[in-house]
Amino acid sequence: MNVTDSIAHILAEEGVEHLIGFPSNPLFDDNAAEKAGIRPIVVRQERTGAHMLDGIARVTSGDQVEAFACQHGPGTENSIGGLAQAYVESAPMVAFPAGYSRAKTNTDPKFSSLINYQHVTKTTEQLTDPDAVDETVRRAFQAARNGRQRPGLVEIPKDVFDEEIGEIEYSPTTSTRTAPDPDGVPEIAEVLLEAERPVINAGQGVHYAKGWEPLKEVAELLEAPVATTLNGKSAFPEDHPLSLGAGSKSEPRELNHFLEQSDVIFGIGCSFTKTAYGITVPEGKTVIHSTLDAGDIDKDVKSDYALVGDAKLTLEALRDEIADQLDGEPRGRLAEVEAEISSIHEEWVEDWRPKLTSDETPINPYRVVHELDRTIEKESIIATADAGNARDFMAPFFEVTEPLSYVGWGKTTQLGYGLGLMMGAKLAHPEKVCVHVMGDGAIGMTGMDFETAVREDIPVLEIVLNNFEMASYDTPFSGHYADFAESMGGYGERIEDPNEVAPAIQRGVTETEEGTPVLLEFLTAKETSLSRPDLA
């Protein structure tokens, strides 16, 4: 057995179902992965492959840790953005980039994954000793699966792949959870119960911990409204009367209102990182911060109380303690809180209704989002929006009700990210309608991988908001993206009539259900109005 076959064997033992990336890498070239029962998928651009693995990880709560591989040199250079994005968004995967042969590894200007990936992966190693393949790969998977989940990477010099080694006996890694300090739970429960206007901010950690039900139970016991981060969108049902929606560059009006009026803010499974794409914690609030990564405590936002641990275990401990302290007596403010949320929300929606239902041409992009929100059943959808205005239109006005039905992001994000995310989501959940909304800029970055969706039978639904320029930057673009989709073997349709938006979406869903990737190109107006806290 050589090193290539050994790695393929280990991947199969780890439960890897997909090896995604780009040749030349012996894991692809020698059919090693396929012989081990792993589906190889070759993408048009390396970072899209990493984005696909990111999507798989996110819609499986980090349970499915898949593998990436690429060529030495140019392949590793092209891939760094995809791994960096997964690192920022805490998405686990294990990457196996080829490296230059051991004799050339340190020869300038050879690109070294060992050196250059250290800041965008959780662990980075170079396999120089073929006999250490099992322990080296095990460390990468262990790092990816446990604690704050992020990519692990093993660079394999070209000459190492073919080295012969003995048979290996490999036991797959496991995932562990950490519980919060039990001595800290009663005091925090008391602070939450004594608060006059508590607000809960739920992040992606709730998804990874599968803490959706205890989150709802804690909110209902406290009679407290719940906001989510963009990564955490869908962790709390947005049709729940205590929902405030997702914090982002554009957000529902009630979210900022309740944050400003709050006295205690409880962040669960979030980092409280200061970003343009998340909530801003107002001054003078009592902050309770619970997260898996102790490094996030007091990083950007000073906390008054903290609990470090798995979000589900933390929420369950708080739920039980709050219930005990309440002794079956509700706080008695539920109707008042729900009425306040509803009143602000309804007023906000009415203010935006002219854009959401606009009959203008070119089509207002808010009309596209509104029809998408109304057309596809929430139980059957997984959605995302790309960077820029597509995100700003979707985040507040596309309502999600099921856990893991939206893949958001919250720090730095590359244009074109969402195509790979939804291709990965579709691989993990072929029964779902996986929808990606993007603009002209995003399709220019990764649009050729629509052909990958066709070639690999991954029937995603792509929605392009085409206003012939990049968002609000006055940078003109051109293209007939529906024709492009057809030329790649998919279903493409260009829509100019606002009354055809919903029917076109329905046609697109039908095509995906029949196994065809779809691109719907909506000719839209330039829209610069956003639902910001100061304007919402």
TrEMBL record:
Domain spans labelled Thiamine pyrophosphate enzyme N-terminal TPP-binding: 1-106
Similarity section: Belongs to the TPP enzyme family.
Pfam families to which the protein is assigned, alphabetical: TPP_enzyme_C, TPP_enzyme_M, TPP_enzyme_N
Organism: Halocatena salina
Keyword tRNA processing appears in the UniProt entry: no
GO molecular-function terms, A-Z: acetolactate synthase activity; flavin adenine dinucleotide binding; magnesium ion binding; thiamine pyrophosphate binding
UniProt-recorded name of the protein: Thiamine pyrophosphate-requiring protein
Keyword Chloroplast: no
Swiss-Prot/TrEMBL keywords: Plasmid, Thiamine pyrophosphate
Domain of life, source organism: Archaea
Cofactor: thiamine diphosphate
Domain (Thiamine pyrophosphate enzyme TPP-binding) ranges: 386-521
